[in-house]
């Protein structure tokens, strides 16, 4: 159901309710003039006080005076039916025995009949608009208990209170509908404005299209007229050229005939000249005639040249005329193309106008659908609010969990990135160590016995470069060892200066002092070779033979180097054992000592 129809029905029901209320007021005034007011009995007052809790605590001021007037109009009935009054419609009906009541007056019956009609109208409005009605439940309870009889004062009060509740609900529903209808009205006004604007645009486009059509028709007429003029001129020029061409053909034919005749005459005259030359006498006589004939031939040749020049000039004029005709043809073709483009533009404008009409119809249909959707969305809005609140609580909990998980994820990503960096750094170090190990294995020291053979790549320059790299590594290792030895020697000298290493003053150790002095004098030269020799005399196991990895250390160890080499060669079978591991190289490039 649309909002406009709902509002119209509600407005008609409210007008009918107002008419019933005015009728009820007039009937009450008539009853007040006809029947004297009577005070209710104390017993009826007590019963009314007992039945007072059944009425709602708050009622509208517009209906409470009517209920009070009705109770004042029928005091007898209120007193008689006090014990049989009806409780609240939501709580049920009490099972009290109603005392027999006297016959009610006509005014009360008419007022209650009108009240019943108003209540039925209100309940029908509530049912039609899906509004919960308290008055309908109260009517059912009253019909079950009393039927169609007159009501007591308390029942009328309860009736009025329930009716006021329904009226307040209807007014709230009306306000809600008005809140929904007002934006729809504003949207409808905006859509009307847009429709007016679109109509104005369509009218403008129609005017422009009409102007364009008129201009196109005028241009078409002008083009047709100019085309007709050009066609006439073209036909006249073609006819004139055809005539000139025929004249030229005839003149050329005549000239050719004359030339042929002249050629024949010339041939005859040449024959005559030959005959005249044969005879000198006749030549003298015919000389004059021949000179005349020669002059005539020259004149004819000049005429022939003139005719050829005229023919060439006529050919040039003909080519110029043909080029002009081609230009005129191009102009005509361009005019035709322009005409076709104007027709295409006109068809495109007509298509745009049709599309605008279709869009206007679609907008009108979508506006009707939007009105229906608004009514449905208003019903779905309340359900979506409750669902949104529930989902909001769930969303907060999920957001907290998500924050914690994101923090854990960030920490894990940081740790993973650190581990990856460490792994990459270690892989680079391992690769460098492998390369250094390969260099030390493939290119050992050069000063080795001749019988020891090494593996080579076959390229002398490459082998020399790699040998140079291996020697550089060995030089670096030896320099590090020398630096460590210098540091240790400096520490020893410092300790000797401080008196930490003073010799004993006993007589039996005096004989040893000279030997210790000699050993200290030989110190760096004699003792520095020992740790270096251990690193230099290491052998690498490569393909079933041992390869030396370091150069011989200094001149101080020169005497012991051959003996150390022989000892290492004797220990080669131990290195070749299958359960032994090949020598390893640490991060500084030094080879570890062989494990026996």
TrEMBL record:
<feature type="compositionally biased region" description="Basic residues">
    <location>
        <begin position="507"/>
        <end position="517"/>
    </location>
</feature>
<feature type="compositionally biased region" description="Basic and acidic residues">
    <location>
        <begin position="371"/>
        <end position="395"/>
    </location>
</feature>
<feature type="compositionally biased region" description="Polar residues">
    <location>
        <begin position="60"/>
        <end position="86"/>
    </location>
</feature>
<feature type="region of interest" description="Disordered">
    <location>
        <begin position="38"/>
        <end position="104"/>
    </location>
</feature>
<feature type="compositionally biased region" description="Low complexity">
    <location>
        <begin position="93"/>
        <end position="104"/>
    </location>
</feature>
<feature type="compositionally biased region" description="Low complexity">
    <location>
        <begin position="547"/>
        <end position="560"/>
    </location>
</feature>
<dbReference type="InterPro" id="IPR029681">
    <property type="entry name" value="CCDC157"/>
</dbReference>
<feature type="region of interest" description="Disordered">
    <location>
        <begin position="360"/>
        <end position="395"/>
    </location>
</feature>
<protein>
    <submittedName>
        <fullName>Coiled-coil domain containing 157</fullName>
    </submittedName>
</protein>
<feature type="region of interest" description="Disordered">
    <location>
        <begin position="496"/>
        <end position="596"/>
    </location>
</feature>
